[in-house]
Design brief:
The chain has 530 residues and is of the alpha/beta class. The chain is 42% helix and 13% strand. A six-stranded mixed beta sheet has the order 2-1-3-11-4-14. Strands 6-9-5-10 form a four-stranded mixed beta sheet. Strand 7 (241-244) and strand 8 form a beta hairpin.
């Protein structure tokens, strides 16, 4: 099964667009869902850059209510304290019918076992023809959403197209390369030479050596760029795992990891990398990057299409020389060239049904509607004639969506009309991404430059742990995560000599990293058996 899955991904990663599975308008789901008007309550984590307080202000939900006869009474999380709000709500057991959350892949099994969430597999089989059809066409999805107890507790956001699997990716100042007469870097050594040239040859042309060639925003973002060049997946205890021919391995526990640290320490020591990634939070460091990009100081970063590349282009719209775009990941000394910021087809974002709901059948039908052709169009494009027009069978956004007259960013503007294909329990539609990303110079598209290097066979899938496994893992992982991040930063920033790397590995062993790896291996083997 997994071989089939990786073959599918290898093929779709080479395609710019893949047509979604052919579905009838509602896929056999009878509308309206309820003969009488029905209201379901939903707690929703605020996702993306939506500025409003009620999803019912979006035209997509207004239209959805008309078609289904189901109104959603939304409670949207406020500010950045969504985790505390979520935890308090779940602890109270005073639950709404539906719960939108970004980490159900990690939390659903726990709350499902406690009885807070409704097992969905039987409801899916009986009342969800659209989601059932997707599971039949993509059988690998079942392992991604099935808890260790065999139950499905939430319906996820799905990406079924190659380029949509790419998340954050390397972005570079192509105008700087052209100005300095540099070829696009491929190997890690060529990347070093390019970053050095950016620093020393006045890439921004202001007569000062003020360039900061590479600006990461946190440790994971830093490792996203260069760790795969040595065959590794990130740095920390949570994300450092990868698969080597069916064997789970942990990156910092591998001997070759020290070579990666040597390379990053070299970049730092020579002023080719902004060290502020190690201090401040994500928003602070993102603001730091934005300032450096708009002031023509940053040369390379790793980021999203929307909140990074498209936003930076918008901020620099008056600069005719500013030219940025995606570039292939670095190739390492052993031939590794791997892009690891890629999602699985199923994400942790999704909607669960509380076990206390009085309307389980209506709730699952309403969720299934999100995966119908109608629901996919509503969630990705909004309402025809309002936010998009169908042009020769292709849903085409109206000009005002991405050129907002009130000065909203493309993402903020789009979210006025839809929940967003990547932030909702639906199928993300590649036709949205094709329009969201402005045209690239020939050969510089994400599909061509990044997607071919996504190798899911080396990525640890979204494994699920039993309660006993989780009980053992939680305290070890908490200590391991902190210890690894602190030491990795110290090695990179020169606060700890790399000669102490063997001792670092010994300390990991004492902290029971091998037990952790064993538990992950068991979970991986179980995942592969579904």
């Amino acid at each position: 099964m997994f071989k089939k899955f990786t073959t599918i991904l290898t093929v779709v990663a080479l395609l710019t667009l893949v047509t979604l599975p052919a579905l009838a308008d509602t896929g056999g789901l009878a509308l309206p869902i309820s003969e009488k008007p029905l209201t379901l309550k939903m707690w929703a984590q605020r996702l993306g850059s939506y500025r409003g307080n009620d999803y019912n202000d979006k035209v997509s939900f207004q239209e959805m209510q008309k078609r289904t006869n189901v109104k959603i009474d939304f409670e949207i999380s406020t500010g950045t304290g969504y985790e505390e709000q979520f935890n308090l709500m779940m602890a109270s057991r005073d639950l709404p019918d539906l719960i939108l959350y970004s980490a159900w892949d990690k939390q659903a099994a726990n709350y499902g076992h406690q009885g807070a969430l409704l097992p969905l597999e039987d409801l899916i089989a009986e009342h969800a023809p659209n989601f059932s059809r997707i599971l039949a066409e993509y059988p690998e999805l079942r392992g991604q959403i099935t808890a260790a107890d065999g139950h499905i507790y939430y319906l996820p956001n799905l990406a079924l197209e190659g380029q949509l699997l790419v998340q954050m990716y390397p972005q570079i100042r192509f105008d700087w390369l052209e100005k300095l007469g540099l070829e696009e870097p491929e190997t890690t050594e060529e990347w070093y030479q390019v970053l050095k040239a950016f620093k020393e040859q006045d890439a921004n042309g202001n007569g000062l050596k003020d360039e900061v060639p590479y600006v990461p925003i946190n440790i994971s973002n830093l490792m996203m760029m260069f760790a795969p060049a040595w065959g590794f997946n990130y740095q920390g205890a949570q994300t450092g795992f990868f698969i080597d021919n069916g064997v789970v391995k942990y990156s910092p526990y591998e001997d070759r990891y020290v070579e990666l640290l040597e390379y990053l320490n070299r970049l730092y020591a020579e002023g080719l990398m902004d060290p502020t990634y190690a201090s401040g939070d994500y928003s602070t460091n993102y603001a730091n990057l934005t300032e450096k990009v708009t002031n023509d100081i940053a040369g390379v970063w790793v980021g999203w299409a929307g909140s990074f590349m498209n936003t930076f282009r918008s901020l620099k719209a008056d600069d005719p020389d500013f030219r940025i775009g995606p570039i292939s990941p670095p190739k390492g000394p052993y031939g590794d060239q791997w892009h690891i910021s890629a999602r699985w087809q199923s994400s942790g974002i999704g909607i669960a049904i509380a076990s206390t709901t009085k309307h389980p059948v209506e709730a699952i039908k309403w969720l299934d509607y999100q995966y119908s052709e109608e629901g996919i169009l509503l969630n990705n494009f909004g309402v025809e004639g309002v936010s998009y027009d169908m042009v020769d069978g292709y849903p085409t956004y109206k000009p005002h969506v991405f050129n907002n007259p009130d000065g909203l960013s493309p993402e903020e503007s789009l979210l006025q009309y839809v929940p967003g294909g990547g932030s909702w329990a639906t199928v993300s539609d590649g036709r949205y991404l094709a329009q969201y990303n402005p045209p690239e110079p020939a050969g510089y598209t994400v599909a061509e430059r990044v997607a071919p290097y996504v190798d899911m066979s080396r990525m640890l899938p979204p494994v699920q742990f039993t309660q006993e496994e989780q009980r053992v893992l939680t305290p070890i992982m908490m200590d391991l995560t902190t210890f690894v991040e602190e030491n990795v930063n110290n090695f990179i920033l020169g606060r700890k000599p790399l000669s102490e790397f063997p001792k670092f590995q010994q300390d990991l062993k004492k902290m029971q990293v091998e037990k952790v790896i064993s538990i992950y291996q068991d979970a991986y083997d179980r995942f592969m058996s579904y």
